Amino acid sequence: MTAHAPRLRDSVAHVHPVDELTWVASGHSTVLIDEVPWQLDTRTALLIPSGVEHVVVPRPDSLVFPVLVPELATATGVERPVLIRRGGALDDLVAVVLQPGLAEEGAVPAAHQRIRELLPCLVDDRPTLPVDDRARQVARAILASPGDERSLEEWATSCHTSSKTLQRSFRRETGLTFPQWRQAARLSAARRMLDAGAPVAHVARAVGYAGATPFIEAFRRRYGTTPARARAASSATGRRP
């Protein structure tokens, strides 16, 4: 891609007055937000709402660009940074934004609007993986089986470490305590199951909740809607396979 947008190099902490998609055109990059590292490559972008301070740390062989799209976070329904799954139509639209000199008149505002419409379906709200090998092993196991009910102490024993060390890794490297991280992982898995049309009661059990009521309450706190409404919305927008 021959982009006309400014390439990001190692940066100091900064903010943008407009919502940003941090976009890796090649290689890998890290974005630091509140000392939590977000790892990006050509498969994932990072939506950073306006006003959020961040530091971009590209690797030497990478190409990274800020894609600024007004009101993107509002359209996507998020107030905090989230990962975005890339590919297909989104990549094509970003190419238009990054090369405005090659686009037809009015193409960039049209691309902005289409990105705003597309992004809600592409939010990857799985929590950030920790960097520490043992904590990362636990995190991957929970993502693979969100209903696993092992305690922090039991996970620590399985990794031959202490619960304090494991808790410290999650807190320092993801910004979340272990219980917070596990709940975020469970609710993210639940959202994908609901998108696929699974019944609410089945989803609640599958992701480790004892009953539908605590699951519904936790889901509403995170997403601002009930699981049943989220399931219906997925059907209405054609997100189910």
Can you give a write-up of this model?
- The structure is a single chain.
- By secondary structure, the chain is of the alpha+beta class.
- It has two domains: 20-124, Regulatory protein AraC (Jelly Rolls, Sandwich), CATH 2.60.120; 133-236, Homeodomain-like (Arc Repressor Mutant, subunit A, Orthogonal Bundle), CATH 1.10.10.
- It has ten helices and eight strands.
- The protein has a five-stranded antiparallel sheet with strand order 6-1-4-7-8.
- Strand 2 and strand 3 form a beta hairpin.
- Helix 2 runs antiparallel to helix 3 and helix 5 (152-158) packs across helix 6.
- The mean pLDDT is 87.
Distance between the termini: 31 Å
Strand content: 15-25%
CATH superfamily of the largest domain: Regulatory protein AraC
Radius of gyration: 19 Å
CATH class of the largest domain: Mainly Beta
Protein name: HTH-type transcriptional regulator RipA
Pfam families: HTH_18 (PF12833)
GO molecular function: DNA-binding transcription factor activity; sequence-specific DNA binding
Keywords: DNA-binding, Repressor, Transcription, Transcription regulation
Short description:
This protein is of the alpha+beta class and 241 residues long.
Q: What distinguishing features does this structure have?
A:
single chain; 241 residues; alpha+beta; Jelly Rolls; Arc Repressor Mutant, subunit A; five-stranded antiparallel β-sheet; three-stranded antiparallel β-sheet; 10 helices; globular
